[in-house]
């Protein structure tokens, strides 16, 4: 049972962003390293990465509540926290258009501010709807490859279960991962990428930097020969902004529509 929200530890970037958007950022005593927005979250005390947490540094902060998602772990750490009396709230993160609002409401309910949550969820839903309405349905849908890249050895195509799939749907585009049978995140061959022929490549900015920018990305097998590579149609966005499904997702969709379709939309 959550008795106080004076000392909050959100161990996920978008959950931290939601806490700040709900007006409770001053109560956050630490975040995990994925929390990069707002600036106060980026500057906050860090307790490691959400998939590799240790109980001791979290307990040292005397938190009243820990907010996490289903990927947080290891499970033993979460169990240790609960055994010491620290409530751990697992927030649902459905990879759908309703996902941002679902997370916002769950966080707000856990922190005792459901009215703020309803207001923020409605605002975010409205932004998503308004942005998606800009898409001209008469234009042939662009084919998009959403990629997760970390250096030369990690290049994954992101599918519907990754959280970016529904965003691609909302911008009126085709996710090549669907045609390739990729549900979450998976490596594909250069030949498969050539056959998929994406018109646009979307990538988190940190990943793009890890391969030396657009030129480095296009040196990866098959990408330079795709329509996206031939026309240098590569767009990068901050990792949390692109993959977080957080309060700024409507803004992301609006920005992506402008980038991909141009100002005519």
What string, H for helix and E for strand, traces the elements in order? EHHHEHEHHEEHEHEHEHHHEHH
Total strand count, please? Answer: 9
> Are there runs of 5+ residues with pLDDT below 50, and where?
none
Provide the structure class: alpha/beta
Main sheet overview: 6 strands, mixed
Q: Using only CA atoms, what is the Rg? A: 19 Å
Helix % is 40-55%
Identify the quaternary structure here: single chain
* Number of domain modules: 2
How much β-strand is present in the residues? 5-15%
Rounded mean pLDDT score: 95
Write structural notes for this entry.
By secondary structure, the chain is of the alpha/beta class. The chain folds into 2 domains: 8-130, Nitrogenase molybdenum iron protein domain (Rossmann fold), CATH 3.40.50.1980; 143-261, Rossmann fold (3-Layer(aba) Sandwich), CATH 3.40.50. 42% of the residues lie in helices and 14% in strands. It is built from 14 helices and 9 strands. Strands 4, 5, 6, 7, 8 and 9 form a 6-stranded mixed sheet that branches. Strands 1-2-3 form a 3-stranded parallel sheet. α5 packs antiparallel against α6 (114-132) and α6 (114-132) packs parallel to α14 (249-261). The longest helix is centred in the middle third of the chain and has 19 residues, at 114-132. The chain is globular, with a radius of gyration of 19 Å.
């Amino acid at each position: 049972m959550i008795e106080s929200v004076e000392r909050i530890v959100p161990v996920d970037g978008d959950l931290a962003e939601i806490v700040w958007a709900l007006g409770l950022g001053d109560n956050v005593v630490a975040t995990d390293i994925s929390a990069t927005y707002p600036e106060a979250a980026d500057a906050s005390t860090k307790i490691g990465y959400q998939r590799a947490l240790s109980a001791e540094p979290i307990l040292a902060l005397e938190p009243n509540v820990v907010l996490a998602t289903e990927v947080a772990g290891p499970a033993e750490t979460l169990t240790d926290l609960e055994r010491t009396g620290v409530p751990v709230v697992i927030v649902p993160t459905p990879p759908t258009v309703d996902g941002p609002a679902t997370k916002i409401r769950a966080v707000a309910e856990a922190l005792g501010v459901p009215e703020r949550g309803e207001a923020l969820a409605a605002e975010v839903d409205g932004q998503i709807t308004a942005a998606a309405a800009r898409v001209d349905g008469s234009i042939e849908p662009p084919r998009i490859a959403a990629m997760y890249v970390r250096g030369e050895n990690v290049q994954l195509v992101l599918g519907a279960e990754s959280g970016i799939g529904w965003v691609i749907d909302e911008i009126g585009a085709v996710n090549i991962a669907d045609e390739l049978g990729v549900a979450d995140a998976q490596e594909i061959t250069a030949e498969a990428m050539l056959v998929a022929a994406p018109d646009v490549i979307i990538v988190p900015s940190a990943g793009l930097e890890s391969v030396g920018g657009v030129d480095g990305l296009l040196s990866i097998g098959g990408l330079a020969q795709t329509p996206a590579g031939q026309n240098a149609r590569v767009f990068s966005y901050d990792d949390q902004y692109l993959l977080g499904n957080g309060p700024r997702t409507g803004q992301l969709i609006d920005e992506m529509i402008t980038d991909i379709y141009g100002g005519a939309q």
